[in-house]
Amino acid sequence: MSLGEKITMETTKIFDLKNGYLQMGWECENTQGNLWQTFIESMLIKNGEENAFLATNCRAENIVSEGKIFGGKLADVSVIKGWDKNLIIRAGPGLYHPFRPGQSKTFHCAKFEYGVKVVGNETKIRKWSFDEVYRELQEGILGNDLFWKVKYKYHGDDYEIISSLRYINFSRSASQQKFIQPISGYVLFEDSEIFFIACLAANILPSGKVNAEILKRIPINLFDTKEFIGGLSIRLLRILSIPLKWLFLTDEFADSVKIDATVEFFTYEQRN
User: Fold this and answer.
1) Which of helix, strand or coil describes residue 1?
2) What does the alpha-carbon distance between residue 196 and residue 202 come to, in Å, rounded to a whole number?
3) What is the pLDDT of residues 108-164, one digit of tens each?
4) In Å, what is the CA distance from 67 to each residue of 26, 71, 221, 255?
């Protein structure tokens, strides 16, 4: 079935990312410690049976009634409920110790010991065709309830990424070539049994042809992020920084992976 065909109501069920959420901190030994709740940014399904969930990210913060909430910890933090363990992934140049790279790696991605609770249920969905989505985009009535499921095979395993569609490019009605190109981020991506925070984009045609790409966030030399600026001084600084690469590392969405994907648009049925 291509995305251009009319799709009728089906009884397919998917975990309800619209109304579900994550709660963290329940297994902390300190009963006076902080608990917190977030949206589920995306869900990753592996081989149809293993589920992983990505919590909404935040800046590193202090829980204080007085004093600075945003202190000196310059990091973006995301919690993952994985297949067999929970992880906390941090990103930012302040994480990389110039003389203790092993410590930097541990702090960048570590086991999350405080417990993650997934709250929610599977819910019936309505699948949407390309033509239905395109028509409502053109008429300006699509709203904010659309989700997508992107299926692909990677390193011998079958994966499905599910997330909401908050950003959608689409062609003008007078264009000779109709297209829809959503971008989702953050999403979860697994590569060689390692989780990465990523962005996902796919260009979709009425025929069902899909051009999809994952953009992984990775550690990268600060001067490598200046590639588009160019110039002799940047190239020289990049070379000189090699011996102290841990001092000049940051995190950026810089590793692109092409995937052979299929796409399904859907909305959740209204709750009774």
Assistant:
1) coil
2) 18
3) 788 888 899 999 999 999 999 999 999 999 999 999 999 999 999 999 999 999 999
4) 26, 9, 34, 39
